[in-house]
């Protein structure tokens, strides 16, 4: 993969991740069924990628690895379910912007869990996200669908932050595709008891949306991201993936007439700036680590 093709793969991956909420809204099924189907189709896609396209050998998993993967899978399941609840309640744009608050949660939780000092630029990041969320919130009435959906999106971002920190604690030993496949297996197992009673009532067209969500927005998008990082710097990847909410909100605008207000656009812009800063700070911190550090 050349740098140009890797950059193209990153943009395609960001677009696919951004379409997650769109396919979730198109599928007329409960969040539990959507997440179960997404995970099941993602397992198939990741297995094909691991078999035919990935050069990373799979590692034998110890009990500690399985414990961490199970925790990650449970967090991933909860993150997806809350995100799709937000989509169903308030629409793609509000849900996506609520979820993108996760860099602020990551900064705070890293300081608490790993006892890392929170720097001034990280305080700025948290402030940008906070102001952005205030602007995105149409009103502070908890009874309104928009506010409720935004809160579900924020909870989804918090769960994603916890997932990222758990993955960070166990990073370096398990190849990314292997870890993603195992986590999706856990997601499917967790959601099967809840989703099973309603699976027979899911329409064929909804299975199509769920299949596209699992294969393209999960399995293929993750595989493109992993493959491109072999060529593209993490700093560049973080900037490209800041386009994810832009893609999702734009497509929702075109398909569902979810026209964002000027205030929402301003808040979204602040949150996206925070995502870019978070990615740049993370890659800069990795660059400062000594050789061999995990």
TrEMBL record:
Q: What's one GO-annotated cellular component?
A: plasma membrane
Query: Record's InterPro entries?
Result: Diverse_Substrate_Transporter, EamA_dom, EmrE-like
For whether the record's keyword set contains Cell membrane, the answer is: yes
One Pfam short name: EamA
Provide the transmembrane region boundaries: 34-54, 66-86, 92-114, 123-140, 146-165, 177-196, 208-232, 239-256, 262-280
Q: Give compartment(s).
A: Cell membrane
Topological category with respect to the lipid bilayer: Multi-pass membrane protein
Q: What is its main location?
A: membrane
Ranges for the EamA domain?
10-136, 149-278
Which PANTHER family has this protein been placed in? EAMA DOMAIN-CONTAINING PROTEIN, OS03G0707200 PROTEIN-RELATED
Name this protein carries in UniProt? Membrane protein
Q: What is the lineage of its organism?
A: Bacteria, Pseudomonadati, Pseudomonadota, Gammaproteobacteria, Pseudomonadales
């Amino acid at each position: 993969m050349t740098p140009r093709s890797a950059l193209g793969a990153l943009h395609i991956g960001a677009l696919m991740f951004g379409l997650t909420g769109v396919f979730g809204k198109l599928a007329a099924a409960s969040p539990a069924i959507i997440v179960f189907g997404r995970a099941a189709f993602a397992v198939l896609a990741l297995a094909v990628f691991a078999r035919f396209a990935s050069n990373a050998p799979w590692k034998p998993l110890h009990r500690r690895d399985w414990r961490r993967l199970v925790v990650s899978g449970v967090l991933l399941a909860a993150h997806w379910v809350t995100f799709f609840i937000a989509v169903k309640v308030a629409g793609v744009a509000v849900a996506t912007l609520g979820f993108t608050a996760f860099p602020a949660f990551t900064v705070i939780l890293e300081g608490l869990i790993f006892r890392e000092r929170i720097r001034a630029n990280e305080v700025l990041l948290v402030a940008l996200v906070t102001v952005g969320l205030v602007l995105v919130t149409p009103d502070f009435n908890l009874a309104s669908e928009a506010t409720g959906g935004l809160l579900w999106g924020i909870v989804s971002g918090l769960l994603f932050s916890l997932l990222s920190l758990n993955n960070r604690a166990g990073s370096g030993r398990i190849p990314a595709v292997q870890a993603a496949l195992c986590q999706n297996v856990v997601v499917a197992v967790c959601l099967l008891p809840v989703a099973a009673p309603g699976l027979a009532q899911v329409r064929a067209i909804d299975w199509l949306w769920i299949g596209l969500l699992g294969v393209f927005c999960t399995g293929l998008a993750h595989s493109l991201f992993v493959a491109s990082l072999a060529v593209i710097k993490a700093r560049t990847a973080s900037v490209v993936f800041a386009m994810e909410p832009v893609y999702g909100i734009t497509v929702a605008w075109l398909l569902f007439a979810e026209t964002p207000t000027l205030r929402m656009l301003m808040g979204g812009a602040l949150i996206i700036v925070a995502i870019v800063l978070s990615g740049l700070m993370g890659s800069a911190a990795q660059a400062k680590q000594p050789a061999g550090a995990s």
